[in-house]
Amino acid sequence: MKTQLSRKAAHRIYIAAAVVILTVIAVGFLLPIVLTVTNSFMESTEISANYGVIFGSAGTVNKTYIAEKVNLKFIPDQVSFSQYITAFVKSPAYLLKFWNSVILVVPITIFQICVALGASYCFARFTGKFRSAVFFVYIILMLMPYQVTLVPNFLVAQWLHLLDTWWAIILPGIFSPFSVFILTKFMRRIPSAMTEAAKLDGAGEWKIFSSVYIPLCKSVIYSVAILVFIDYWNMVEQPLILLSDPEMHPLSVFLSKINAGDIGLAFAVATIYMVPPLLLFLYSEDYLIDGISYSGGIKG
């Protein structure tokens, strides 16, 4: 009896310790986000008083970090929307960069999923050595970092006369192998009995694809869409290499230039930049968890 009580007590202590540790880790991850949001509502004078000059002036070549102690302040003395007024009204360039990000990322996310659904259905439904070889190539391409394929992408875009156009980024993004790999692995878990039952009802390949596979893959489609959106929403190398016109750069590239100037404005623009992926995650959180865990009603 005492042994059982001691085990229960030890288990409760273990659970409590795990909760405390995980809470501390979660707070540590959230602190930079909270700091960014709250500081975006501070006046420039208050930000300067707390942080001083983080960098040297934007015109200097050698930028030095501040040597004095930084006062991290999470609650502003007086709430101000001046930084947001500057971002939305006084300096429309920031808002333009935001829409550049939307124009680039949304088509990539939508059409990459569309292409991946068709390719994944073929990989999952049909067998053969040729299919295995092509899928192996997809895996190799997925494992390669973007820096490895940057030069070939640049040369192909130059050959197709797509440099300095959004197509130079959108087209490679549409045919990225990441979504194909994830969706194929999920579709292969769909029981063949469902396909056979659909065939007995007179369904063809398109009917099986649209009425059986896509509904069952709803959770993983959402999860892949979120991951693709976040990946390309934060892209930096592609616009810097393939777009020479700064007016076409997304906000992810432009944020570094803001940091060299007004820190308060950088907080406000960074907060605006976080809104779309955050809303997408909150709306599709359940689907993301189901997709990653390969659930969604299909147990292999």
Automatic annotation (TrEMBL):
<feature type="transmembrane region" description="Helical">
    <location>
        <begin position="208"/>
        <end position="230"/>
    </location>
</feature>
<protein>
    <submittedName>
        <fullName>Carbohydrate ABC transporter permease</fullName>
    </submittedName>
</protein>
<feature type="transmembrane region" description="Helical">
    <location>
        <begin position="135"/>
        <end position="160"/>
    </location>
</feature>
<feature type="transmembrane region" description="Helical">
    <location>
        <begin position="12"/>
        <end position="35"/>
    </location>
</feature>
<dbReference type="Pfam" id="PF00528">
    <property type="entry name" value="BPD_transp_1"/>
</dbReference>
<dbReference type="GO" id="GO:0005886">
    <property type="term" value="C:plasma membrane"/>
</dbReference>
<feature type="domain" description="ABC transmembrane type-1">
    <location>
        <begin position="98"/>
        <end position="284"/>
    </location>
</feature>
<keyword id="KW-0472">Membrane</keyword>
<keyword id="KW-0813">Transport</keyword>
<keyword id="KW-1003">Cell membrane</keyword>
<dbReference type="InterPro" id="IPR000515">
    <property type="entry name" value="MetI-like"/>
</dbReference>
<dbReference type="GO" id="GO:0055085">
    <property type="term" value="P:transmembrane transport"/>
</dbReference>
<keyword id="KW-1133">Transmembrane helix</keyword>
<dbReference type="InterPro" id="IPR035906">
    <property type="entry name" value="MetI-like_sf"/>
</dbReference>
<feature type="transmembrane region" description="Helical">
    <location>
        <begin position="98"/>
        <end position="123"/>
    </location>
</feature>
<keyword id="KW-0812">Transmembrane</keyword>
<feature type="transmembrane region" description="Helical">
    <location>
        <begin position="263"/>
        <end position="283"/>
    </location>
</feature>
<comment type="similarity">
    <text>Belongs to the binding-protein-dependent transport system permease family.</text>
</comment>
<feature type="transmembrane region" description="Helical">
    <location>
        <begin position="166"/>
        <end position="187"/>
    </location>
</feature>
